[in-house]
Amino acid sequence: MSRVLIFAGANGAGKTTFAKSILEPNLVFINADDIQRQERLADIEAGQKALKLIDDSISKKINFAFETTLAGIGLKKRFEHLKRRRYFVEIYYLFVYPVELLLERIKERLKKGGHPVPEVDVKRRYGRSLKNFWETYRFYADVWKIINNNEVEARTIAIGRKEYFLMLDEPEFRIFKEKVKNG
């Protein structure tokens, strides 16, 4: 069975850093930000290229990983395609709060040569990302984890399969659910 690892969360949640810390070295990792930087493409072109690489990986049934904010439902058809192709789908949702912490991380990333994300986009995508993961995308996963990435060391606060889950940190999970509801 082919396998896909999906690293999701708001802008500034630490998706790339977390992914690179756990990925097997030979696994294909599709990251629009890396594509943009390496190929000097505009945001939209890099995003389109990343989607094409995802589609190609699914067609070839290779193991791969990608990152996404899940702020839209545009990936839903690709998730359905993954399931039709019998992929084992793992989602790691990196949860960070409050949104001001994400904005601070993005500012720090910029100082190190990273890419900017407008504050208005971060704030708009934050609630959508949480809601879309919880209400839509987790149901496509064979296994999913919600990881609190506020601190230096990430902590898993819940693990599940579709609608079934186990809370590992009930107070943090309550905060997550509150953010899903209120953004």
Overall outline: globular
CATH architecture classification name? 3-Layer(aba) Sandwich
**Which structural class should the secondary elements be placed in?**
alpha/beta
Largest sheet: 7 strands, mixed
CATH H-level superfamily: P-loop containing nucleotide triphosphate hydrolases
User: What string gives the helices and strands in order?
Assistant: EHEHHEHEHHEEEH
Relative helix content: 40-55%
Enumerate the spans where pLDDT stays under 50 for 5 or more consecutive residues.
none
**Structure annotation, total helices:** 7
Provide mean pLDDT, rounded: 94
Distance between the termini: 36 Å
CATH first level? Alpha Beta
Number of strands: 7
The largest beta-sheet arranges its strands as: 2-3-1-4-5-6-7
- Strand residue content: 15-25%
Number of domains: 1
Description:
This protein has a single domain, classed as 3-Layer(aba) Sandwich (Rossmann fold). Strand 6 (about 155-160) and strand 7 (about 165) form a beta hairpin. The protein has helices at about 15-20, 30-40, 45-60, 75-85, 100-110, 120-135, 170-180, and strands at about 5-10, 30, 65-70, 90-95, 145-150, 155-160, 165. It starts with a strand and ends with a helix. Strands 2-3-1-4-5-6-7 form a seven-stranded mixed beta sheet, sandwiched between helices. About 45% of the residues lie in helices and about 20% in strands. With about 180 residues, it is of the alpha/beta class.
